[in-house]
Specification:
Distance between the termini: 47 Å
Strand content: 15-25%
Strand order of the largest sheet: 1-2-4-3-5-10
Number of helices: 13
Helix content: 25-40%
Radius of gyration: 23 Å
Number of strands: 10
Shape: globular
Order of helices and strands: HHEEEHEHEEHEEHEHHHHEHHH
Length: about 475
């Protein structure tokens, strides 16, 4: 174990509270914009630790901001606490067994993410108070990362306008600072309206909205051949117009998620998908209404912050897993194929190690590829303030994101060890940014230079509102 820095010791002093918060949020999984209890649990601990807390920010009842300190630079640490639908799972076992049929589950580890970020914020607050340093640490409690774009709404509301740098992390199978690459995205809802009729005696009088949805999807599938290789388009029928086959469906609805390498590329694809929807309406004699649900920008790099965070992780070393942690992770791995495990290594350019269940290494700075990536609302933040994030090993190598296996590992000791390491990494970097003004100034100058050549238009226009329940 490396020698503890003052901020490392402060993290360890409050770690048990963060473990309890993570486990508590795991036990009450709440999906997009429904995180009332999870948000309240974060606010409760923040107030107990001396933060000034504001809830319901940016028009989202489950979003919050908590601040401590005075004067100086403002450093943001972002946390999340939303779960995913349909992933209910008993903790601590290696077989699929829902706690509640059809229930929710923390299949992306956001119970750990929020608690780890909050722990880092508490440690920084304690450090500033002990040292009498003029600076502020601000915790952002962000709901609805899974398709709700909460951070984008916070950006649009100006809640990052006075922030000097922003940090976050994500639970993973490996630890390090990977290449800052994500896909810009926009989620759209297409609602088709037609005319109902008897499907047998008077089909000629009907205009099928379901036909329009299906034709739109066919058109999207033909589009795939003619879009950039990094772009993605996914869809789901959210309303098929009923279950009676002898009725021509008068209404049907589909949600389409468009992803691309950059915002400009994304908006071009959005336009093309919109044209396909209009064409489907013309072919079926129906009308279509388009509504944007959410949208995220692609990630913007901050090389100076990334190098500094990598150096912190190198000093700290990987998580201190033990034989018991390895044994449970190995049991989880038995539910994967060898291809699953190899792909997990491959995403970071690492060579598979036979028999390795949990990773203790720090992978090379900038590892990762432009493929097999998703989208994140952290991207929108990175356009308006220098932003850095790391991944920290919390679960078995090969664990798929958004899976029952990840949910099962969400309360394991390995999860606690990972979130504590993440908190130490972020807290140490915040202290470095405060105590080394030149590092922060370089990061801000690099960001300003990028923005001078790359104007930002938030993918959430003024007419897009949070998809509150």
């Amino acid at each position: 174990m490396p020698n503890l820095s003052p901020v490392d010791a402060l993290v360890e002093a409050k770690a048990v509270k963060a473990f309890a918060l993570s486990d508590r949020v795991w036990e009450m999984p709440e999906v997009n914009f429904e995180e009332a209890r999870s948000s309240a649990a974060h606010a409760e601990l923040l107030r107990a630790e001396g933060f000034a807390v504001e809830t319901g920010v940016a028009g989202m009842p489950t979003a919050l901001i908590a601040e401590a300190g005075r004067g100086g630079p403002v450093i943001a640490i972002m946390g999340e606490y939303d779960a995913l639908p349909g992933l209910s799972q008993v903790a601590g076992i290696a077989e699929q067994k829902p706690l509640a049929e059809g229930g929710h589950g923390h299949g992306c580890g956001h119970n750990m993410l929020g608690a780890g970020s909050l722990l880092a914020a508490i440690a920084v607050k304690d450090y500033l108070a002990q040292r009498g340093v003029a600076a502020r640490v601000r915790y952002y409690g962000c709901p609805a990362e899974e398709g709700g774009s909460a951070k984008g709404f916070m950006v649009r509301a100006g809640l990052f306008d006075d922030v000097d740098a922003a940090l976050c992390w994500h639970p993973a199978a490996f630890t390090g600072v990977n290449r800052p690459f994500s896909l810009a995205c926009a989620e759209l809802q297409f609602s088709f309206s037609g005319r109902a009729s008897h499907a047998s005696s008077a089909p000629h009088l009907g205009r099928s909205a379901l036909d329009a949805v299906e034709l739109m999807h066919v058109g999207i599938n033909y589009l795939r051949e003619h879009m950039p290789s990094t772009a993605r388009v996914h869809y789901a029928i959210t309303d098929a117009g009923g279950s009676a086959p002898n009725v021509v469906q008068a209404f049907a609805q589909s949600r389409v998620l468009v992803r691309a390498h950059s915002l400009s590329e994304m908006w071009d694809l959005v336009s093309r998908v919109g044209n396909i929807a209009e064409g489907a309406g013309l072919m079926t004699g129906t009308t279509v209404e388009r509504k944007q649900i959410s949208g995220d920008a692609n990630l913007v790099a901050s090389p100076g912050l990334e190098g500094a965070l990598h150096a912190v992780l190198e000093r700290l070393g990987g998580p201190d897993f033990d034989a018991t942690d390895d044994a449970y992770a190995a049991a989880i791995q038995k539910t994967f194929s060898t291809a699953d495990i190899a792909a997990s290594y491959g995403r970071f350019g690492l060579r598979p190690i036979k028999g390795e269940a949990l990773s203790r290494i720090i992978y090379p700075l900038g590892a990762g590829s432009d493929h097999a990536v998703g989208s994140t609302d952290v991207g929108s933040v990175s356009w308006v303030v220098p932003t850095v994030q790391c991944r920290v090993a919390c679960y078995a190598i090969g664990t798929p994101g958004h899976s029952w296996q990840l949910v099962a590992q969400g309360q394991a000791p390995a999860a606690h060890k990972g979130l504590q390491l993440a908190a130490k990494a972020m807290a140490n970097l915040v202290v470095e940014l405060i105590e080394d003004p030149a590092l922060l100034a370089r990061a801000k100058a690099d960001h300003a230079a990028f923005r001078a050549e790359n104007p930002f238009e938030n993918p959430l226009g003024p007419d897009v509102v949070p998809a509150l329940p």
